[in-house]
Amino acid sequence: MRKLWSLLFLLVPVGAVALFWVAPDYGWSMPTNVSSFGHRIDDLYRLILWITGVTFVLVNAFLVYFMFRYSSKRQNKASAHVHGNHALEVIWTIVPALILIFIAFVQMKDWRAIKFTQEFGIEGGPMARVVARQFEWRITYPGKDGRYGTLDDVQTVNELHIPGWKEGEDPRKFLIDLEAADVLHSFFVPQFRIKQDAVPGMTIPVWFDAQIQGGTDDNEYDLVCAELCGWGHYKMKGRVYVHTPEEFQAWLDQQGGE
Which pLDDT belongs to residue 148? Predict the structure, then answer.
């Protein structure tokens, strides 16, 4: 029986590694990246995945070994009580701490470039205001006067339109003011590699960009809430439409004229 249990526990890390290895071939990995900074996020994700993956395999390998090696049926004498091992305790405390410090330093440059306002490099103010509320996204574009709360504002519900950029062009950044009207929400567009909590009482600047893909349908993406925000959380879903700058301006003009 001990061999059977050892084999079953061995199948867990073996199966997990196998799934990890074949996942990209079946589209089970990260969604397609269309952002200029997405590769930075993906590199950090893979680094952390490898660290946790190796740790997972080692822990399970030791578990299977000890299950087989120290099975009660193989031991005819009572096990000795061990109070602890200070050396081991120090090692398994220091090693994870060093790994976390390493990750913190590795990601610092990317975090600053993506999240710090002074690094945005965007002239002018925000191009839209996105207000999350149960259970929808309300988007407001300032009119020609460049101010919110005036008659020429363009408002949409669950539709965010942005100008994109094509291969060979400089990435075109889009800046929004993110707010929450009631409870915590989270603005999440996986293909843009952007995820930002929306906090009641706070206005949070968020920037992102998107490379224009082949056809029209290839430039529509889901905007979802990644924070459990109430009974209707499952249906808090919007769409992001990426246009050429000319198409975006034409859409904006058309909405403003209605």
Answer: 84
Rounded Cα gap, residues 123 and 174, in angstroms: 10
Question: Which CATH number does the domain 128-257 belong to among 3.30.1360.120, 1.10.760.10, 2.60.40.420, 1.20.1250.20?
Answer: 2.60.40.420
Amino acid at 43: D
How far apart are the C-alpha atoms of 126 and 176, rounded to whole Å? 5
Q: What pTM, to 2 d.p., does this model score?
A: 0.83
Full strand arrangement of the beta sheet holding 237-243:
159-163, 237-243, 220-225, 185-189, 194-198
Q: What is the pLDDT averaged over residues 83-94? A: 86
